Amino acid sequence: MTHKFNQYSELLNCSLSRAVDYLESLPERPIDQKISSESLRELIGGKLPQQSGDPKQVLNELAENIEKGLIASGGPRYFGYAIGGTFPVSLAADWLVSAWDQNVPYYVSSPATSVAEETAAEWMLELLGLPKTAGVGFTSGAQEAIYTALITARNSLLKKAGWDVAKKGLYEAPRIHVVVSDQIHSTIKRALWMIGLGESDIKTIPTDSNLRILPQYLPEILAECDGPTLVCAQAGCIDSGAFDPFEEIAACVQAHPNAWLHVDGAIGLWSAASQSQKHLLKGIEKADSWDTDGHKWFNMPYDSGMVIVRDAALLAEAMGGNSMGAYLTDAIAKPDRNAVNFGIAASRRARGVPVYAAIKALGRQGIEEHLDHCCAMAMKMADRLREVDGITILNDVVSNRFSAQFGKGGDEFRNRLTERVVHQLQQDGFCYPSTSGYKGLKTMLFSVLNCHTSEEDIDATAEKIIETYHIELEKCQQHDVAALCE
Ligand SMILES: Cc1ncc(COP(=O)(O)O)c(C=O)c1O
């Protein structure tokens, strides 16, 4: 037989050397390469290739060209949005996952990765202090995890109301009331559209100045919900890192005859693994479902998310994994973990393996150190900026992020100055915060989610931010407010 398995070696070695060069360049690389989309199309696009090419040349050219337009978001001074770095061990494990090329929906299609995912799931529940019997699915990210959790919530709420979604669909189903924080992330709304609940009569719970749910409003709101009711809270608000008051929220939800509490913990659920932070999440274990991300604070390579449902049987029922075709009957009958019962994907890669590797390599202590370090770095930056006349930190910094505004004077002036400072920082390429909104104000969002961010990075970034603020302020003082608003 003439197999060609020896073809992989040269190509993978080429990838290895390219990847290592890229990763090691991250601390010095300008974060945004500032190349136009036209130039990228010239480099990367073109006509459909008709003839086969030399794979090594293709790989080298691909790396060369694509690296010209990458954002160095894995670097130590990337502070925008909610983007994490990568633990080296997880990236390395992820490469093995690609090489093994296992398909994991059924135990029989990949016994060993099924056991690795099962173990990673058990370890996660223990780390996060969530019920040991909960079901954990490895998803592409928090969006898919939210979607999965809310499908389970919808079906379970309707089942309790005497309606079987799998049999009857949603035609003439009882109405489900939806109650969410006024700061709920857009991916919850997106999931609500996708699962047929829409958003037109979502009830919102007001939040305080830290963007945290004001629980005193909840009993009154829930009293108006006279049927199945879905309540969504969050652990780690994008703009403030705030945690909703889960204890009070869970008590109200449990007092309702048919309500389900989902917690979006895409950013902050990992705080439950830190001794010094877990008090912020008191009561979170009383929810019915949770989502989180691996690729944000837990520093998995993309893509990695997790859905967790208290009652694993409800998750499995909603996923319908036991009703596949005849060719899968024997596979499903095995008593071991079939991933298809824990998520919407059928075929997928073994995403839980990099999670397993990280937990095994870092251990509880290493994970806690990583989480605490990120929070300490966010707090250090906020403290440094707060000392500067004219810089305001808008929230109490309790986690890995905060929102800030630059300048004094009216809202419009501060909004424009803030926008200019952030855009200038992004343009310079040394550090990368992003813009956001905070109760109607334009802000700088500063987020620390990368295991590589050091104290020196924070010090150097603080200098850069303060210098940029003074330059932009000076410019606007020379020109007047109208010029700033141009
Ligand atoms: C609070 C929150 N929830 C959900 C999501 C969605 O996560 P993902 O993009 O990983 O699907 C995000 C993304 O930033 C988020 O900040």
UniProtKB/TrEMBL annotation:
<comment type="similarity">
    <text>Belongs to the group II decarboxylase family.</text>
</comment>
<keyword id="KW-0663">Pyridoxal phosphate</keyword>
<dbReference type="InterPro" id="IPR002129">
    <property type="entry name" value="PyrdxlP-dep_de-COase"/>
</dbReference>
<keyword id="KW-0210">Decarboxylase</keyword>
<dbReference type="InterPro" id="IPR015422">
    <property type="entry name" value="PyrdxlP-dep_Trfase_small"/>
</dbReference>
<keyword id="KW-0456">Lyase</keyword>
<feature type="modified residue" description="N6-(pyridoxal phosphate)lysine">
    <location>
        <position position="296"/>
    </location>
</feature>
<dbReference type="GO" id="GO:0030170">
    <property type="term" value="F:pyridoxal phosphate binding"/>
</dbReference>
<protein>
    <submittedName>
        <fullName>Pyridoxal-dependent decarboxylase</fullName>
    </submittedName>
</protein>
<dbReference type="GO" id="GO:0016831">
    <property type="term" value="F:carboxy-lyase activity"/>
</dbReference>
<dbReference type="Pfam" id="PF00282">
    <property type="entry name" value="Pyridoxal_deC"/>
</dbReference>
<dbReference type="InterPro" id="IPR015424">
    <property type="entry name" value="PyrdxlP-dep_Trfase"/>
</dbReference>
<dbReference type="InterPro" id="IPR010977">
    <property type="entry name" value="Aromatic_deC"/>
</dbReference>
<dbReference type="InterPro" id="IPR015421">
    <property type="entry name" value="PyrdxlP-dep_Trfase_major"/>
</dbReference>
<dbReference type="GO" id="GO:0019752">
    <property type="term" value="P:carboxylic acid metabolic process"/>
</dbReference>
